[in-house]
Amino acid sequence: MPEQSLLSNTAAPLLLSLAQLSHAGGRQVNQDSWGSAQQDDLSCIIVSDGVGGEYGGEIASNVVVHAIMEMFVEEASFGPRALQSYLDCAVAQLNRRQAQIPRLKDMSATVATLLIDQKNRCALWGHMGDTRIYQFRRGQLLHYTKDHSLIQQFVDAGHCSAEQLRRHPRRSILCAAVGVEGSAPAEVTPNPVPIQGGDAFLLCTDGFWEWISEAEMAQAATQADSAQDWLTIMHAIVEKNGQVCNVPLDNCTAFTIYVAEPQAANNH
Question: pTM of the entire structure?
Answer without folding.
Answer: 0.91
